[in-house]
Specification:
Elements (H helix, E strand, L loop, with lengths): L8 E14 L8 H10 L3 E2 L17 E6 L2 E6 L4 E6 L2 H19 L3 H4 E14 L3 H7 L5 H10 L8 E3 L11 E8 L7 E10 L2 H9 L1 H15 L3
Antiparallel strand pairs: 1-5, 1-6, 2-3, 3-4, 4-5, 6-9, 7-8, 8-9
Helix pairs in contact: 1-2
C-alpha cells in the first residue's frame, strides 16, 4: 500500500495553544495592562483586580485571565508565559497576533524582542478506517532491538505508536518538537491520539507549523499506514 492510499483520515482538534515565553526575570506586563489587552481582543476578563489596588501598582495575575466562547487567554507570570488556547487553530493564531500588537501599543512590550521562544501545544484525535492498533503493531516488526527487549521481558512485543523528536537535541532547548502518535486507549481500532509540542525562537516557523498541523499529522499517519503493512 502506498502511504495514505485507501485510508480516510479525519483530524479533530481537542485543544490547541500558542504561547510565548519571555526572557525577562519579572513579567513585564502588569495585571491592568493584561486585562486591557484581553478586552482589546474582545475577551471578557475572568478575575477582577484586587480591591483598593493603588494606581501604578504592578500586581500580576495568572492562570486563565479572560475568555471568549471556547477561547482562553492565559498568563503564567512565574514562568513568563503569555498565550491563547482554543480549538480553532487559525482563530487562535489570529487572537495571538492581536495580543502581540496590543502588548506593544498598551505596555510598550515587544514580544518578539522579549521572546525566549514561541511554542505550540496541541492534542488531536485522528479517526481512520485502518486499525491504529494493527498499524503500530507492525511498525518496526522484526527489528532486532525489539526482539532483544522482548527477550528481556520474556514475551513477544510490538510498538505502540511513535514519538518523533529532533535527533541529538535536548527537550529543554529553545529549538524542539515532539510529535507523539499512538492508538487512542478508548478506541484503539479506529482512532489515534496525538500530542504535539513545537517550539522555536523563530515565531514564523512556529506559526507555520501550527497552520500546517492537521496536514502534517495526516501525512505522518498516512506514512505509518503505508509503511506498516507486513
Amino acid at each position: 500500500m502506498d502511504p495514505g492510499s485507501g485510508s480516510s483520515v479525519d483530524v479533530r482538534v481537542n485543544s490547541f495553544g500558542l504561547s510565548v515565553r519571555l526572557t525577562s526575570i519579572f513579567f513585564p506586563i502588569d495585571s491592568a495592562q493584561v486585562l486591557e489587552i484581553a478586552r482589546g481582543i474582545g475577551f471578557t476578563p475572568a478575575p477582577e483586580l484586587p480591591p483598593g489596588m493603588p494606581p501604578g501598582a504592578r500586581v500580576v495575575i495568572g492562570g486563565i485571565v479572560a475568555r471568549k466562547g471556547s477561547f482562553s487567554m492565559l498568563v503564567d507570570p512565574n514562568r513568563g508565559v503569555l498565550g491563547i488556547q482554543g480549538k480553532d487553530i487559525p482563530e487562535v493564531i489570529g487572537y495571538f497576533d492581536k495580543v502581540r500588537e496590543l502588548a506593544k501599543q498598551l505596555s510598550d512590550v515587544d514580544l518578539d524582542k522579549e521572546a525566549r521562544f514561541y511554542e505550540v501545544a496541541a492534542d488531536l484525535a485522528i479517526a481512520t478506517d485502518i486499525s491504529p492498533l494493527e498499524v503500530t503493531a507492525n511498525l518496526f516488526a522484526g527489528a532486532s532491538d525489539l526482539q532483544r527487549l522482548g527477550n528481556l521481558l520474556g514475551a513477544a512485543i510490538c510498538n505502540y505508536g511513535v514519538r518523533l523528536v529532533p535527533a541529538n537535541q535536548a527537550p529543554t532547548g529553545e529549538e524542539w518538537f515532539d510529535y507523539r502518535i499512538e492508538p487512542l486507549l478508548a478506541r484503539p481500532s479506529s482512532e489515534y491520539f496525538s500530542s504535539i509540542v513545537h517550539r522555536s525562537r523563530d515565531r514564523d516557523s512556529v506559526v507555520t507549523a501550527a497552520g500546517k498541523l492537521s496536514e502534517t499529522i495526516k501525512a505522518l499517519v498516512g506514512a505509518m499506514e503505508g509503511g506498516a503493512e507486513p
